[in-house]
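Weekly structure sync, notes
Attendees: PL (lead), two postdocs, one rotation student
Agenda item 3: pending single-chain targets
PL asked that the sequence for the first pending target be pasted directly into the notes so everyone works from the same version. It is reproduced below exactly as submitted, 205 residues in total.
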Amino acid sequence: MFLSKIHLDIHNIQIRKCIHDCQNMHRSIQWLFHGSRQDRSVLYRINPEKLDVYIWSANKPDINDMPTGMILRGMKDFSIIEKQLVVGQCFGFNIIAAPSKKVMVDGEKNSKRRFLRNPQERIDWFERQGKKYGFELLKVQENQTFSVTGQHREENGGKIHCQVIEFQGILRIRKCEDFQIGWKYGIGPGKAYGQGLLMLCNHNV
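Predicted structure, written out during the meeting:
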């Protein structure tokens, strides 16, 4: 897996469209990989204050086909670190996620996701993700909550609007194989729109 850091030029009109429309951002990032998000295992995370995007992917982005307004600042290969993961290892983490549940809506055929409004329900949701992906939470806190918006084609749902939240804390690996799945492929919904990327840092407990 590779982690790339790309700076966004706010003076570029296409970049401004990306910042205000998550579907445009998704399309621009996928342009670097010449394939679907699922096939290339692509996740991303925006730092709006510094105008940086962190892209997590199975393949290197095509830097020769970079959209205008995007500037590569660095890239790191994590393949060695992946092989060194062991049960009991602890990491600090940070993630933008959309803790939610599916509910039926009157007059609608399909269920829709609803953001969990209760803080304890959101923590419980994240703990369930930990069990699914082979880690336990030693410490977790919520930071900011914000909205993600965009516009899809009408046949794919039209307007995009979802609430997301930033979690940070300390986790411990319980099952390496399950943990690698969550780390590589993301946690929770909204992976095409900047959610689900588990950012890790070293932590000694």
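Discussion points:
- The longest strand covers residues 135-151.
- Helices lie at 13-20, 22-30, 37-40, 79-83, 119-132, 176-185.
Action: rotation student to compare against the earlier draft before next sync.
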